[in-house]
């Protein structure tokens, strides 16, 4: 039996991805007024870019692991997150 979908886990994952996206694009974060990443620059070295992509892929895997949300807000959040992750 599949455990019930956990909308709180989806919300945490979406929030985690938002922070990751801002960390990987610190100039975008600063332009939004989020100064947590001001000391960073976007990754440009191939190894750093690959590491960032692996972190994004991990979020996508964890989204898949949550299973299918029921219709409603969680389904919209999951769909938007998946679309953003797949770019």
Tell me what the structure shows.
The protein is an all-alpha fold. The chain has 4 helices and no strands. The chain is elongated, with a radius of gyration of 15 Å. The chain starts with 6 loop residues before the first helix and ends with a helix.
Biggest sheet layout: none
Class from helix and strand fractions:
mainly alpha
Question: How many strand units?
Answer: 0
Share of residues in strands: under 5%
State the end-to-end distance.
32 Å
Q: Which percent bin holds the helix content? A: 55-70%
- Count of spatially separate domains: 1
Low-confidence stretches: none
Query: Quick one: overall form?
Result: elongated
H/E topology pattern = HHHH
Global Rg: 15 Å
Number of helices: 4
Mean pLDDT: 96
Topology diagram in text:
Elements: H1 7-24, H2 26-31, H3 46-66, H4 73-86
Helix pairs in contact: 1-3, 1-4, 3-4
What labels describe this entry?
87 residues; mainly alpha; 4 helices; 68% helix; elongated
Task: Summarize it.
The chain has one domain. Helix content is 68%, strand content 0%.
